[in-house]
Amino acid sequence: MKTRSPRSIVTGMMWMRQFSDTDINLRHTCEQGDRLQSYGWLMHDGINFGVQEIRDNDFTLTTEFVKRMGGDHGGDWTWRITAKQHVSPFKQSTAQKKKTESNPRSDPVSW
User: Fold this and answer.
1) Is 29:12 a contact under the CB 8 Å cutoff?
2) Which end of the chain offers a freer environment for a tag, N or C, measured as fewer CB atoms within 10 Å?
3) Could you report the per-residue pLDDT of 83-111, keeping only the tens digit for each?
4) For residues 105 and 79, what is the distance between their CA atoms, to the nearest angstrom?
5) Glycosyl hydrolase family 63 N-terminal domain spans which residues (predicted)?
6) Could you say which DSSP state residue 95 is in?
7) What are the pLDDT digits (tens) for 48-64?
8) Distance between CA atoms of 19 and 21, rounded to whole angstroms?
9) Side-chain-side CA neighbours of residue 29 (13 Å)
């Protein structure tokens, strides 16, 4: 990741899925042929802040960066990465079934 500033910090990240059936386990870029659900910037100004979302098959990565002005080198950078695992309908229904079996008097939630 690099901003539009002439003396920008350059960062990157790599991520992987363990025990995957696909041939792509280690990623470090987002390309159209990578079978990602989606990827891109949710918001940014190109220089001081940005929020990016990468939706892989099993999880979503959100990267956020912000620059605080000052210091001897143009500012201080903070970068946060959040990973959220997607729950498949099969896993969710199995978990709900186990919860209902352990507490037979509980009523299922209807939306």
Assistant:
1) no
2) C
3) 998 876 565 555 555 555 555 554 454 44
4) 46
5) 1-87
6) H
7) 899 999 998 888 999 99
8) 7
9) 4
Residue type, 75: G
| DSSP code for 53 | E
Q: Over the Cα atoms of the chain, what is R_g?
A: 20
Question: What is the residue whose two structure tokens read 């929020």?
Answer: 51
Q: How far apart are the first and last CA of the chain?
A: 41
Does this model's pTM top 0.70? My answer is no
**pLDDT, tens digit, for every residue of 33-43?**
888 899 999 99
AA identity, residue 97: K
- Element containing residue 102 per DSSP (H, E): helix 89-102
Rounded to whole angstroms, how far apart are CA atoms 60 and 39? 9
